[in-house]
């Protein structure tokens, strides 16, 4: 009977084996690379991607960096179904240009990207964008995130190409144009640690605009933040800037395709936390990454990461071992929920099967007894004895567990009782 119990477990074991095979064949493994779209060499995105690359490389995954013209091209690559780009740095405010927003999810805001407006020596002190009316303005690379946001900021103060002259220039070209007096002001979007921003802050003939309407602007444009650059923050010994400067700032956001494997998403989140968790001029320690992006939905993995940290297995095990365990559990946990009740039901099913065998013999015996009652002739009664012997032989051949022996003995007693009825006239 023990062999029969084991035999009854065979379907469960087969189901388990099939599920494991399916898990490792059809549940998509994470792969060993991520393609991220960044910026030009002069951009912060490129710098941060290289830091990510070093962290992710230690986990055996290659982060392939694809330079681009900036956030706008990054968004286009992410939306292009023929592109192999998995992730990209975006600047707040670009989602309005997105065609396939629902296919993209945010891993959170990474850091502040202040808008820096520098103006030349011959320009009167600037404190408001409306003062740029009629001026020559460098607004950033063509079709860049800087250009899009600059035009939006200027439009809010009723400045456009009709009443000012716009120049689409890269960072270095814009700086050269300022120094040469070819433009009156130039817009840049970068962190205060950026080498070019540091260089311009030290230029004697170039000045940084103090945006005195910064708070009002952030009320008009919800994704912007009001920042204050403290005096001396750039250079303490030279007290640069000489006074507090008000700035407006979007945040940089890491966006991925929602098809990116969750294990790789968690690797990106881990790298982002290490790189952007440190304090800065505007950021407190561990302030970033955070869900400040209200344009793209936060991914489910990011929600869990910000709530509970990295997945349990990835905290203590090498990445690939953790991935194998997680893939196994994805199938095993639901399967156990099905198999465990099945295993518990097996004893009940076996019990029912055994009792059905006994009840079958009782059924035949009862039918035979009913027929016996309808005959009173001794000769007719004797004709039922072979049938009783056949029932008894069937009972003796039943291979039942020892715990059912009592039922067999009772059944035999009932067979003997009916036999006596056949041998003794009513």
Description of the structure:
- The chain is of the alpha/beta class.
- The chain folds into three domains: 31-110 and 255-310, D-Maltodextrin-Binding Protein, domain 2, CATH 3.40.190.10; 115-249, D-Maltodextrin-Binding Protein, domain 2 (3-Layer(aba) Sandwich), CATH 3.40.190.10; 334-423, Methane Monooxygenase Hydroxylase, Chain G, domain 1.
- 48% of the residues lie in helices and 14% in strands.
- It has helices at residues 2-26, 44-57, 71-79, 145-156, 171-179, 195-202, 214-220, 262-276, 300-308, 312-316, 319-373, 378-382, 385-396, 405-423; strands at residues 33-37, 62-66, 87-91, 104-112, 115-120, 136-138, 165-167, 185-189, 206-208, 225-229, 245-249, 251-257.
- Strands 2-1-3-12-4 form a five-stranded mixed β-sheet, sandwiched between helices.
- Strand 6 (136-138), helix 4 (145-156) and strand 7 (165-167) form a beta-alpha-beta unit.
- The two termini are 42 Å apart.
Largest sheet: 5 strands, mixed
- Rg to the nearest angstrom? 40 Å
Class by helix and strand content?
Answer: alpha/beta
Mean pLDDT: 83
SSE arrangement, N to C = HEHEHEEEEHEHEHEHEEEHHHHHHH
Shape: rod-shaped
What would CATH call the homologous superfamily of the largest domain?
Periplasmic binding protein-like II
CATH architecture descriptor text of the largest domain: 3-Layer(aba) Sandwich
Strand residue percentage? 5-15%
Q: Poorly predicted ranges (pLDDT <50, ≥5 residues)?
A: none
Would you tell me which CATH topology of the largest domain applies?
D-Maltodextrin-Binding Protein, domain 2
What strand line-up does the widest sheet have? 2-1-3-12-4
Ends: how far apart?
42 Å
Q: Kindly provide the name of the CATH class of the largest domain.
A: Alpha Beta
């Amino acid at each position: 009977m023990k062999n029969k119990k084991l035999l009854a477990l065979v379907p469960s074991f087969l189901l388990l084996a099939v599920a494991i095979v399916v898990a490792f064949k059809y549940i998509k493994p994470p792969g060993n690379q991520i393609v991220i779209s960044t910026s030009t060499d002069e951009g912060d995105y490129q710098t941060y991607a290289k830091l990510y690359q070093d962290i992710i490389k230690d986990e055996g995954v290659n982060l392939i960096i694809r330079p681009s013209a900036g956030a706008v091209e990054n968004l286009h690559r992410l939306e292009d179904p023929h592109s192999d780009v998995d992730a990209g740095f975006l600047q707040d405010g670009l989602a309005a240009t997105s065609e396939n927003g629902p296919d993209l999810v945010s891993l959170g805001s990474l850091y502040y990207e202040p808008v820096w407006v520098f103006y030349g020596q011959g320009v009167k002190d600037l404190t408001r964008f409306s003062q740029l009316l009629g001026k020559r303005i460098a607004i950033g690379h063509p079709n860049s995130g800087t250009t899009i946001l600059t035009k939006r900021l200027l439009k809010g103060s009723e400045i456009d190409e009709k009443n000012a002259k716009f120049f689409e220039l890269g960072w270095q070209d814009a700086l050269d144009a300022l120094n040469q007096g070819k433009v009156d002001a130039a817009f840049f979007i970068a962190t205060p640690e950026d080498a070019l921003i540091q260089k311009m802050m030290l230029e004697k003939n170039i000045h940084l605009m103090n945006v005195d309407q910064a708070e009002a602007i952030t009320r008009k444009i919800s994704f912007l933040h009001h920042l204050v650059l403290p005096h001396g923050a750039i250079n303490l010994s030279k007290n640069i800037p000489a006074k507090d400067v008000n700035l407006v700032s979007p945040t940089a956001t890491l966006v991925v395709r929602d098809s990116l494997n969750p294990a790789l998403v968690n690797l990106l989140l881990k790298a982002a936390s290490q790189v952007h968790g440190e304090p800065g001029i505007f950021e407190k320690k561990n302030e970033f990454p955070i869900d400040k992006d209200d344009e793209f939905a936060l991914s489910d993995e990011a929600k869990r990461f910000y709530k509970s940290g990295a997945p349990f297995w990835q905290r203590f095990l090498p990445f690939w071992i953790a991935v194998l365990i997680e893939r196994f559990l994805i199938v095993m946990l639901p399967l156990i929920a099905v198999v465990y009740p099945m295993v518990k039901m097996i004893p009940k099913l076996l019990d029912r099967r055994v009792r059905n065998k006994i009840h079958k013999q009782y059924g035949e015996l009862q039918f035979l007894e009913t027929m016996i009652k309808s005959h009173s002739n001794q000769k007719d009664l004797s004709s039922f004895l072979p049938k009783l012997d056949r029932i008894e032989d069937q009972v003796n051949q039943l291979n039942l567990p020892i715990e059912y022996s009592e039922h067999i003995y009772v059944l035999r007693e009932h067979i003997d009782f009916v036999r006596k009825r056949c041998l003794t006239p009513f």
